[in-house]
């Protein structure tokens, strides 16, 4: 096998990584992952690591699923590619479209395939605008999203997203996309109950609609739980109120379920958990458990009726829309999800257990707030705890305490992501109770290391 130093040097010389400061990374070297099995990874130095992030929120079924690689191999041998442009199709794509219609919330009979979540959100922008054009309201093109949302890295995806750092590069957002604040109780809910705050945060949408002009608003897009923004779990009152407001003005709802889809919250789609009746659902990642790139948009009846019913071609698509090999991987992933009753297990057993075990971390002197929903969870690192969650004292962001903690996680054999000083996890859905115990113990050890480090620095 190539030795680690050679791989690191070659990586440094040639490979431009996504979201990486190469100058800061310098010659220190990246960690080279070489193998995965279940919830564990091994790096090139033989170190075993518990993958608390399912790769990048996607390897929901864990690593080393032989039946997925077999399905991929067999499809490669039978028909490695054919497109679905110009009145052609392929067998796995047809079967997957039908399967998705069966497992989607009621009213979703159609799917548009893409190669990724970003492409799926680009598709959403074009699809909702086409919908309103066909309805004879071409002025209705504005899409409302939220700050700190992540909807991908293409021009439209990054514009829909609300990451300031992304907008600052390349003159984003593109015209016709505006943002409201995210429903972050910890940040903005002081003096309110969570339920009151949910209603308040939803009212920011109505303010924006009135500001833009309801006759110009095409759609609202949101992740049921904001993932990359720091696992922001909204109060239970938030989404029903968003739904009410969108219904009032006839605005379409796009639920971006790239992270939350395929069981992560204990429902096949989190829209069902939060009481959202979306018109379009973005999916990717978990649909193939990350084994092969695939994304898409589930198209609800309101949009499908117009898009299909009015005739004419939707001038949009990708070479790899409905790629047979990716669709074969997805069919097998969904089969495993169903056969092993994984979504049900997360809902009824391991999800509540993870919630209970993760909450015990709140007693750590560094942890101000720990919460979870199904198999996503986060905790906030604080300098000093206050009497309520709105009374905590936080670290100077320049100290990058989250990154310090992430470093200890890595060194101790655990992957946990830092979003500022919020530490987040989204582990594979196959985790057992015993593995949850192991993970929580590892997190506690890393918190202790971080605490000791900070104390030493004063
Ligand atoms: N939407 C959400 C909610 C995501 O979390 C992501 C990726 O993390 C995307 C869209 C973009 O998906 P992709 O990276 O497959 O383009």
TrEMBL record:
Protein's UniProt keywords contain Transferase: yes
Stored Pfam families: Aminotran_3
Protein's GO biological process: biotin biosynthetic process; gamma-aminobutyric acid metabolic process
InterPro entries found in the cross-reference section: Aminotrans_3 (IPR005814), Aminotrans_3_PPA_site (IPR049704), PyrdxlP-dep_Trfase (IPR015424), PyrdxlP-dep_Trfase_major (IPR015421), PyrdxlP-dep_Trfase_small (IPR015422)
UniProt KW keywords: Aminotransferase, Pyridoxal phosphate, Transferase
Transmembrane segments: none
Entry annotated with the keyword Transferase: yes
SUPFAM superfamilies given in the database record: PLP-dependent transferases
CDD domains membership: OAT_like
Gene3D superfamilies found in the cross-reference section: Aspartate Aminotransferase, domain 1 (3.90.1150.10), Type I PLP-dependent aspartate aminotransferase-like (Major domain) (3.40.640.10)
Known cofactor(s): pyridoxal 5'-phosphate
GO MF: adenosylmethionine-8-amino-7-oxononanoate transaminase activity; pyridoxal phosphate binding
Matching PROSITE patterns: AA_TRANSFER_CLASS_3
PANTHER family tied to this protein: ADENOSYLMETHIONINE-8-AMINO-7-OXONONANOATE AMINOTRANSFERASE
Protein family per UniProt: Belongs to the class-III pyridoxal-phosphate-dependent aminotransferase family.
Annotated protein name in UniProt: Aminotransferase class III-fold pyridoxal phosphate-dependent enzyme
């Amino acid at each position: 096998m190539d030795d680690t130093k050679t791989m690191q040097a070659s990586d440094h010389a040639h490979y431009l990584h996504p979201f990486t400061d190469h100058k800061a990374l310098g010659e220190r070297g990246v960690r080279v992952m070489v193998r995965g099995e279940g919830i564990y990874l091994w790096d090139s130095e033989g170190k075993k690591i518990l993958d608390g992030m399912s790769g990048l929120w996607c390897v929901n079924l864990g690593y080393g699923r032989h039946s997925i690689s077999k399905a991929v191999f067999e499809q490669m041998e039978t028909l490695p590619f054919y497109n679905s442009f110009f009145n052609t199709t392929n067998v796995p794509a047809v079967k997957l479209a039908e399967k998705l219609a069966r497992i989607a919330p009621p009213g979703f009979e159609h799917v548009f395939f893409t190669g990724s979540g970003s492409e799926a959100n680009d598709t959403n922008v074009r699809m909702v605008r086409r919908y309103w054009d066909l309805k004879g309201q071409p002025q209705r093109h504005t899409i409302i999203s939220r700050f700190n949302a992540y909807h991908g890295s293409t021009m439209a995806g990054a514009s829909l997203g609300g990451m300031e750092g992304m907008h600052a590069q390349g003159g984003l957002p593109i015209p016709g996309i505006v943002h409201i604040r995210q429903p972050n109780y910890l940040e903005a809910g002081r003096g309110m109950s969570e339920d009151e705050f949910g209603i308040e945060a939803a009212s920011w949408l109505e303010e924006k609609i009135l500001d833009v002009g309801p006759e110009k608003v095409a759609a609202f897009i949101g992740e049921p739980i904001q993932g990359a923004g720091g696992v922001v779990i909204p109060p239970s009152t938030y989404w029903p109120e968003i739904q009410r407001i969108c219904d009032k003005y006839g605005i379409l709802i796009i639920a971006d379920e790239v992270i939350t889809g395929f069981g992560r919250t204990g429902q096949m789609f989190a829209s069902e958990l939060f009481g959202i009746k979306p018109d379009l659902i973005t999916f990717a990642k978990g649909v193939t458990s990350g084994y092969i790139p695939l994304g898409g948009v589930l198209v609800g009846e309101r949009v499908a009726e117009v898009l299909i019913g009015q005739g004419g071609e939707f001038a949009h698509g990708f070479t790899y829309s409905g790629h047979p090999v990716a669709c074969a991987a997805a069919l097998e992933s969904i089969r495993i999800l169903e056969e092993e009753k994984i979504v049900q297990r997360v809902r009824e057993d391991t999800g509540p257990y993870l919630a209970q075990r993760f909450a015990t971390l709140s007693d750590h002197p560094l942890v101000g707030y720990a919460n979870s929903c199904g198999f996503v969870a986060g905790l906030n690192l604080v300098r000093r705890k206050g009497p309520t969650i709105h009374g905590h004292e936080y670290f100077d962001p320049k100290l990058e305490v989250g990154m310090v903690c992430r470093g200890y996680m890595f060194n101790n054999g655990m992957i946990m992501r830092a979003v500022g000083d919020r530490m987040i996890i989204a582990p594979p859905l196959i985790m057992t109770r015993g593995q949850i115990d192991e993970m929580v113990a590892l997190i506690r050890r890393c918190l202790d290391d971080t605490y000791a480090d900070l104390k030493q620095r004063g």
